Amino acid sequence: MSADLPEPSQPQRPRFTARGVWRGSVEIAPIAAFVLPFGIAFGVAASAKGISPDMSVFMSVAIFAGASQFAALDLWYAPLPLATLALTVLAVNARHILLGAALAPWLLQVPIVRRLAALLFLSDANFAYAMSARDRGETDAGILFGSGLTMWLIWIVGTAIGALAGSLLGDLSRFGFDVVMVAYFAAVIVGQWKGRSDLFPWIAAAAVAVAGTYVLPPGWHIIAGALAGGIAGVWRHG
Amino acid sequence: MVDAIATISAVLLLAAVTMATRVGGVWIMSYVAITPRIEAFLKYMSVSVLISIVVPTTWTAQPRIWLAVGTAALVMIATRSALGAMLAGTALAAFARGVGL
Q1: Structure pTM?
Q2: What is the mean pLDDT of residues A48-60?
Q3: Residue B39 with chain A: CB contacts under 8 Å
Q4: Residue A86 binned pLDDT confidence (cut-offs 50, 70, 90)
Q5: Residues with Cβ < 8 Å from B80, sequence gap 6 or more?
Q6: Across the interface, do B52 and A224 touch by the CB < 8 Å criterion?
Q7: Are A182 and B51 in contact (CB under 8 A)?
Q8: Minimal CA–CA distance to A182: which of A28, A7, A34, A78?
Q9: What's the confidence (pLDDT) of residue B99?
Q10: Stretch A8-17: mean pLDDT, rounded?
Q11: Concatenated DSSP letters of A12-28
Q12: Pair B49, A122: CB distance under 8 Å
């Protein structure tokens, strides 16, 4: 996507620069644009729960994790069940812990303040983007912060539109927006294919994740599948 | 209705929980020696997170989602462009909805 990537032949130390932040924020924009309808959907759903527009926007600013925000809405009644809310949000967002761990060999080599900045807006989509950027030889952790920042801003704008005017827009899934992320993730997965030795860990991840949707509480199948794929990969390759 | 103070407190609590999940993984790994074995585990785990999101979602979805995911995968193989693949998959899903799939 960008002409100024580091040469793959000259491996560079992980770093975090303003150029990386800019590159990440621009390169993710075409994907992040499709976060807008999801933000709108959240704003609409929050309004339907009687949450005022300023509080809906505040949720998106402070939490910025779509699936968990929708899950929280299901529990939004007075008096707020704080413990249940916290546990539900923890369960839905627990996969962030795995995303962060996967980034650790990279991020532990940048200074701690910049490391925290790179993690501040961590989400599935900017993780997927960073993963494919890493494959192209990207070493600048600033792309995580930049790409997350773009997604955060669009999520906030979408929430505001949805909370204020969403009921005028109708069902946005008619445009196919509901498949954007799953199609993007599928493409990133395919791009990670390195050869037949990947087959067994990938099937292990898929099988455990699918089985998990039947036997585990909502959200945990992602954790189970991810761990199964990691373990299968190590088991096969020592 | 939930009052404003309760809402703000609850949102801050949920934001703190979410932020803990974002920094928690790197924090835990800062105490673990990253051997080649651990690195291989993390590498397979990272693609497996996405597999665990995509496969069950697609499995239980309507045929237009299967078409969109299949198209995205094929376009990725052909072009190596994740963005192009995403756009092709989305366009096909919109088309499939248009024709009633």
Answers
A1: 0.87
A2: 93
A3: 105
A4: very high
A5: A191
A6: yes
A7: no
A8: A34
A9: 81
A10: 71
A11: ---B--HHHHHHHHHHT
A12: no
